[in-house]
Amino acid sequence: MGRLVKIERVKRSRAPLRLHGTIARDLGIGIVSGLYQPGDILSGEVASSERLAVSRTAYREAVRILAAKGLVESRPKIGTKVSSREHWQLLDPDVLAWTFDSEPDLELLNSLFELRDIIESEAAALAAVRRTEAQLKVMRQALERMARFTIAIEAGREADQEFHATLLRATGNPYFISLTTGVNAAVNTTNMFKQRDRPLERDPVPDHMRVLEAIAAKDAAKAKRRMSELIRLARADTPTPRMKRAKKRA
Predict the structure, then answer these.
(1) What's the predicted TM-score (pTM) here?
(2) Which domains does the chain have, with CATH numbers?
(3) Fewer CB within 10 Å of terminal CB in the chain, N or C?
């Protein structure tokens, strides 16, 4: 199983990106990892495109991607400045992936699980009283696939995301449902991060099954409690980030 995880990491690292996407990813990782600090001015378009041996158009498009995610802001006569973290779209799938590509700081990691607990535990309570039989079936099938494949491989992680996405849909609340992309990004990113050194030893499927059983029984209080416990265990499975070394900017 450990070999499967390593193979998947290699495949992800080789995932093709368009040139501006590659530039955005590299700059994004530099920003969220602290290589570039809030307030830093990035090199100008001409200098950066020459240094990276890319067209000015590709570099400009990369900066636009970062600006859309709140990581930078561009102003005439000032240049492209790294934004403070309060402006970052922290639940954006790319920003989450870039954050966990290096080492998320401990406070940020704990805050992510705190947010999940607040959102998903309440969502589970609502789902318990509003879910349909069709939604229960989808969640059961997702857990069956999750058990068959495990979260060590992509098929298992996709099943995990489907479970959480269907639970949010089962709330019937459009605002909860609108959080699906962010919640799934958090679930998937932390699933991969917790297995960076070795496969997960604990099977998370029983925790998910207990949540599903409470939702199926229409027991809102129990569904909320069991989801909170699921997230607490997921945090316990996630390794504490290693100490970051001081980095020097080029």
Answers:
(1) 0.84
(2) 2-87 (1.10.10.10), 103-237 (1.20.120.530)
(3) C
